[in-house]
Design brief:
Number of helices: 11
Radius of gyration: 33 Å
Largest sheet: 7 strands, mixed
Shape: elongated
Pfam family, one: NARG2_C
Structural class: alpha/beta
Organism: Bracon brevicornis
Protein name: Little elongation complex subunit 2 C-terminal domain-containing protein
Strand content: 15-25%
Number of strands: 17
Order of helices and strands: EEHHEHEEEHEEHEEEEHEEHHEEHEHH
Number of domains: 2
InterPro entries: ICE2_C
Distance between the termini: 125 Å
GO cellular component, one term: transcription elongation factor complex
Helix content: 25-40%
Length: about 425
């Protein structure tokens, strides 16, 4: 496939605003030929079957499914998700296929705007028809000395408008944390075939080509500072970088009120992991335990189609449903679940916290620390007047008292002068 050329606008003194052209964005990213067309499912990808013929693989998963599993770092994870899973047999061995997670039924306004700006940003900075766009086959040949254990088999052509890469990783149990109940279990290593997609290729100063994934970050509190990435966002970005060799992340901070680009942040898997540790006191590697447990459970299932669903009530666990024609209380009806055409909005989204370690251009201009604000000029909360106001009030009182005393003395003098005349008249 073709990797689009990434051209980021230079942020100088002038404003850089992203134009929003809804018809062109819909034509480029949402132009499906058929109403129920499947979009390059991993379970139906002929490239994956070709690789399975010559490699021992336990799990075949898309990058979307991988990020969905990796985002469950917090046991109180409140977002709901559904993963379609297919268990097949290849050469007498069961292989688990995990496709892209199903669309959300509802979401808060921040998540909705972030999802929309992902396509707005891609449409503005990615140029697939640029004369410097990179062919994925040529790029892999030029970087063939990578130490990653990925397959180099000749595969059929990639699906239309795709630049898919296929890499095999080994997930072992030796480095994962174990509790008392897992000490007597027989652990094994699992081979994972991950299909990933690169957003764009950026030309570096030394004419090197750097593969990049884009992540918009909307800023709603620009006067205070940069909003911190959520644990879900950071864990997804860590998984994207960890399982995409030689790829970096460009986080674009955008003002959603006017679509202005504020600044660019370049991140690696190590720097994103440091953010997770600093902000939430957890590690990105902790998500590998979730992925390992998922593979361990699903490889024991019989061949067939399954649904793995997580809801708020499940907490750190998920439910597994197998395809059936039966009906009942314990049956999950996907048609009924997605029968509502309205994409509902969850009210009262959580208030984003400010990242005190991120310095924005506004802080450099006003020489202000992050999370600081302009001092208020209103009366303090304790209703005490400032010292200057107290001095002014005392001076005004003294001046008014002096004026009253002068008026009284003048009135007394005028009364004394009138008293002799009145006595003579008598």
């Amino acid at each position: 496939g073709i990797i689009p050329r990434l051209i980021l606008p230079k942020l100088l003194k002038r404003r850089i605003s992203i134009p929003i052209n809804a018809p062109k964005i819909a034509e480029r990213y949402f132009n499906f030929q058929e109403p129920f067309q499947t979009k390059n499912l991993v379970s139906e990808d002929p490239n994956c079957e070709k690789i399975l013929e010559s490699h021992e693989v336990d799990l075949v998963i898309s990058s979307s499914g991988l990020k969905c599993l990796a985002s469950n770092l917090d046991p109180s994870y409140k977002n709901s998700w559904i993963l379609p899973v297919t268990v097949k047999e290849f050469n007498g061995k069961k292989v688990v296929f995990v496709d892209k997670s199903l669309p959300l039924v509802n979401s808060n306004i921040i998540q909705k705007n972030t999802w929309v700006y992902k396509y707005i940003l891609k449409h503005h900075v990615l140029h697939p028809n640029h004369n410097t766009s990179v062919n994925l086959d040529d790029f892999e040949d030029a970087n063939g000395d990578s130490d990653q254990d990925d397959s180099s088999e000749e595969c059929p052509s990639s699906p239309t408008n795709g630049n898919f890469s296929y890499n095999i990783f080994t997930l072992g149990a030796c480095g994962l944390p174990q509790n008392e109940m897992m000490k007597n279990k027989v652990e094994r290593d699992f081979n994972i075939l991950i299909r990933t997609k690169i957003d764009g290729a950026e030309k570096m100063p030394k004419k090197q080509i750097q593969c990049v994934i884009l992540a918009p970050k909307l800023e709603h509190q620009i006067t205070l500072g940069a909003e911190a990435v959520t644990l879900e966002e950071a864990s997804r970005q860590w998984a994207s970088l960890t399982f995409r060799p030689d790829t970096s992340l460009v986080r674009v901070r955008i003002n959603p009120t006017n679509s202005d680009i504020i600044q660019y942040e370049r991140r690696t898997a190590v720097s994103v992991n440091n953010e997770i540790k600093r902000l939430y006191n957890v590690k990105g590697e902790d998500s590998l335990q979730v992925i390992y447990n998922f593979i361990e459970v699903m490889t024991k299932m019989k061949p067939g189609k399954y649904i793995v669903r997580h809801t708020i009530r499940n907490g750190a666990f998920a439910s597994v449903y197998k395809e059936t024609d039966a009906t009942g209380k314990k049956v999950l009806d996907l048609q009924a679940l997605y029968s509502d055409e309205e994409f509902r909005t969850i009210p009262n989204p959580p208030w984003p916290m400010i990242d005190k370690a991120v310095v924005m251009p506004m802080h450099e201009l006003f020489q202000r620390m992050p999370a600081m604000f302009y001092p208020g000029r209103k009366t303090p909360l304790n209703n005490k007047k400032p010292l200057v106001q107290k001095k002014n009030a005392r001076q005004l009182k003294k001046t008014a008292a002096k004026k009253r005393n002068v008026i009284k003395r003048n009135a007394k003098k005028s009364g004394d002068e009138k008293s002799p005349e009145s006595s003579r008249s008598e």
